[in-house]
């Protein structure tokens, strides 16, 4: 993505700002969705970030990525909205237990879903809790006077941030509680938008697939369509490839549906890891040959383009072999 | 910088085909050979898909204005196919990308690379020449002798030119 930031970025390559934050307010945005306000314990400005960025929070022994809903200008507070996933791995439940005054640690913010600065118009599509990065996009678009529209689908009664979205977007917002209606609306929008429009979608995997397929069929080139997936669980199994370890000479096959990280571990190769969903940066491995297929949220755009590192927990290889400096 | 990093375009050897998912096509042919490509593309467009087609001797101001009007009114799903000498095709592509078209929406068939345009870094005028890259050309704006540098600005569709021996001046 060609992201150019209206705000000074704190997302330089490799640099990982470690933040200690204090929960300053807790509120319910919708049933099961908790909005947390975070600030520096002593007060003061937090780093600005491109719209659509996320913060990686240490929560309940895990690290989860949560979208920042602000417009990205440096501010005294960050806000995140977290959906409680009762059968999730527990990260969201831990966040839901936090109270005002609690101290938490985080890294970031990191940008992997930024607006396109040259876009003539932006179509923002959100499903469920996928509204959070797009609320950030909408706020920034309003702030900078950029043309956009937002299509937001959610289950009846489960819409988050509705009042602020209406106030912010006015008639640029379309809210749909009915899935068929949302999909029909997406289809008609994608059928007729000016050249120079970009689409940004965040939501459940089937919604993202619908947007990508519909856009493709209507002649949208892939580089006009930008998606943010909730988690590694939403990633497809991918193609099999072989990891070749340059130093030890070991060859480790990585079947479809198995991560590079899991395959290496099974072969007795120790690789540090933590989140196992492409957000924390622990499992980064140096690549010496083969093209990585980046599927993480961790590496910055220049690092991806360089192709000399791969996040083993989620990313794969576009070639038959990926050579690692191990 | 090695050759791999030059911004001088290397054009695909194959003539691009009409994209079957396109919902509207713009075809622009410059010169006789460019016009011939437009004719072939036109015949390959699915019936019912609207086509804007234009041919001209060169990518002059009038032609580029017509193209700009077409791009300005286009909706996503539109594709542009350009054919002609590199110098004309670069100028046309710069107009299209300046109005929001992406490289993935533009196909190019280059019929000749003999001519090039050189943008003077000193007076900002543009001079056309048949000098090769690394050759020398007299700027029509300021009269300086310009070195034709191996850098093509996508925005201007022209090579960068700067004064020969610029570094030796006081
Ligand atoms: S283990 Fe966290 S990015 Fe891979």
State the CATH superfamily name of the largest domain in chain B: Nucleotide-binding domain of ferredoxin-NADP reductase (FNR) module
> Radius of gyration of chain A, Cα only, in angstroms?
20 Å
- Tell me the number of structural domains of chain A: 3
**In terms of per-residue confidence, which ranges of chain A show pLDDT below 50 for 5 or more consecutive residues?**
1-15
Strand order of the largest sheet of chain A: 4-3-6-1-2-5
Could you report the average pLDDT of chain A, rounded to the nearest whole number?
A: 89
Quaternary organization: heterodimer
Q: Low-confidence stretches of chain B at least 5 residues in length (pLDDT < 50)?
A: none
Q: How many separate helices of chain A? A: 7
Helix content of chain A: 10-25%
Classify the fold: give the CATH topology of the largest domain in chain B: Rossmann fold
Q: What's the count of strands of chain A?
A: 18
Major β-sheet strand ordering of chain B:
6-5-9-8-7
CATH class of the largest domain in chain A: Alpha Beta
Tell me the major beta sheet of chain A.
6 strands, antiparallel
Corresponding CATH architecture of the largest domain in chain B = 3-Layer(aba) Sandwich
How is this structure best described in words?
- Chain A has 3 domains: 93 residues, Elongation Factor Tu (Ef-tu), domain 3 (Beta Barrel); 110 residues, Nucleotide-binding domain of ferredoxin-NADP reductase (FNR) module (Rossmann fold), CATH 3.40.50; 91 residues, Ubiquitin-like (UB roll) (Roll).
- Chain A is globular.
- Chain A is of the alpha/beta class.
- Chain A is built from 7 helices and 18 strands.
- Chain A has a 6-stranded antiparallel beta sheet. In chain A, strands 9-8-7-10-11 form a 5-stranded parallel beta sheet, sandwiched between helices. A 5-stranded mixed beta sheet of chain A has the order 13-12-18-14-16.
- Chain A starts with 17 loop residues before the first strand and ends with a strand.
- The N terminus of chain A is likely disordered.
- In chain A, helix 4 packs parallel to helix 5.
- Chain B is an alpha/beta fold and 170 residues long.
- Chain B has 2 domains: 97 residues, Nucleotide-binding domain of ferredoxin-NADP reductase (FNR) module (Rossmann fold), CATH 3.40.50; 53 residues, no CATH class.
- A 5-stranded mixed beta sheet of chain B has the order 6-5-9-8-7, with helices on one face. Chain B has a 4-stranded parallel beta sheet with strand order 2-1-3-4.
- At the A-B interface, loops of A face loops of B.
- Bound molecules: FE2/S2 (inorganic) cluster.
- FE2/S2 (inorganic) cluster binds next to loops of chain A.
């Amino acid at each position: 993505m060609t992201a150019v930031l209206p705000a000074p970025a704190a997302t330089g390559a490799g640099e990982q700002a470690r933040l200690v934050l204090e929960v300053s307010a807790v509120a319910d945005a919708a049933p099961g969705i908790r909005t947390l306000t975070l600030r520096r314990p002593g007060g003061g400005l937090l780093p600005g970030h491109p719209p659509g960025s996320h913060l990686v929070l240490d929560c309940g022994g895990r690290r989860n990525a949560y979208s920042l809903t602000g417009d990205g200008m440096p501010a005294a507070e960050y806000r995140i909205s977290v959906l409680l996933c009762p059968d999730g791995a527990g990260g969201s439940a831990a966040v839901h237990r936090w109270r005002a005054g609690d101290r938490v640690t985080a890294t970031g913010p990191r940008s992997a879903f930024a607006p396109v600065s040259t876009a003539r118009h932006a179509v923002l599509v959100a499903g469920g809790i996928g509204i959070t990065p797009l609320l950030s996009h909408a706020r920034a678009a309003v702030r900078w006077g950029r043309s956009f529209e937002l299509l937001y689908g959610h289950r009846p009664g489960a819409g988050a941030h509705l009042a602020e979205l209406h106030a912010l977007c006015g008639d640029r917002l379309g809210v749909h509680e009915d899935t068929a209606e949302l999909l029909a609306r997406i289809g008609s929008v994608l059928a007729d938008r000016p050249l120079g429009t970009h689409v940004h979608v965040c939501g459940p995997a089937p919604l993202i697939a619908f947007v990508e397929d519909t856009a493709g069929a209507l002649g949208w080139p892939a580089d006009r369509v930008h998606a943010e997936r909730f988690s590694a669980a939403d990633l497809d199994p991918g193609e099999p490839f072989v990891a070749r370890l340059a130093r030890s000479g070991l060859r480790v096959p990585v079947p479809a549906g198995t991560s590079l990280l899991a395959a290496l571990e099974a072969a007795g190769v120790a690789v540090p890891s933590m989140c196992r969903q492409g957000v924390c940066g622990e499992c980064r491995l140096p690549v010496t040959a083969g093209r990585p297929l980046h599927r993480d949220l961790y590496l910055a755009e220049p690092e991806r383009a360089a192709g000399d590192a791969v996040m083993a927990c989620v990313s794969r290889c576009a070639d038959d072999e990926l050579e690692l400096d191990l | 910088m090695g050759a791999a990093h030059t911004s001088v375009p290397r054009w695909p050897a194959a003539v691009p085909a009409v994209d079957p998912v396109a919902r509207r096509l713009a075809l622009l042919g410059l010169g006789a050979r460019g016009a011939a490509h437009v004719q072939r593309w036109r015949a390959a467009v699915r019936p019912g898909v609207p086509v804007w087609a234009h041919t001209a001797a060169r990518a002059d101001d009038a032609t580029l204005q017509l193209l700009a009007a077409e791009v300005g009114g286009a909706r996503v799903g539109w594709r542009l196919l350009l054919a002609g000498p590199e110098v004309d095709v670069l100028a046309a592509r710069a107009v299209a990308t300046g109005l929001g078209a992406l490289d993935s929406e533009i196909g190019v068939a280059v019929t000749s690379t003999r001519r090039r345009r050189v943008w003077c870094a000193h007076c900002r005028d543009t001079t056309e020449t048949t000098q090769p890259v690394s050759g020398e050309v007299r700027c029509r704006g300021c009269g300086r002798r310009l070195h034709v540098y191996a850098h093509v600005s996508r925005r201007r569709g022209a090579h960068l030119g700067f004064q020969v021996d610029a570094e030796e001046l006081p």
